[in-house]
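User: Could you check the structure of this?
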Amino acid sequence: MQLPAAVKKVPPMKVSFTIPGRPVPKQRPRMGPNGHVYTPKNCREYEKKVATSAYTVFRRPYAGPVALKVNFFLSSRPGDLDNYVKAVSDGLNRIAYLDDRQVVELKAKLTVQKGISERAEVTIRALPLKFVIQ
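Assistant: Sure, the predicted structure tokens are below.
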């Protein structure tokens, strides 16, 4: 079967980058004295660092489904892997993808080794839609 000229296959695209420094796990929101809910300062700062690192490789966010792979490297006792992933995922909103709900495939790894250069290595791959009609 031959496809119409306006229908083309979309190849998968992949982007990788490194977030330098010690990763920070996402913490639960806190309640301020005035009743406002907020994200702790160290989490907000790390999410900004994630965004800054992503800005170096993204011109615009992916609009479709994506696969997210994150490798964390720490030199001492870590927090929970899923909390590290959530901090990175939230920091990539509106930069790597429109919303982290687009992440439909996830792979994460945590390496703890004394003296290692602390960082997070991120790879985001656009998952191809079978066909795109122009």
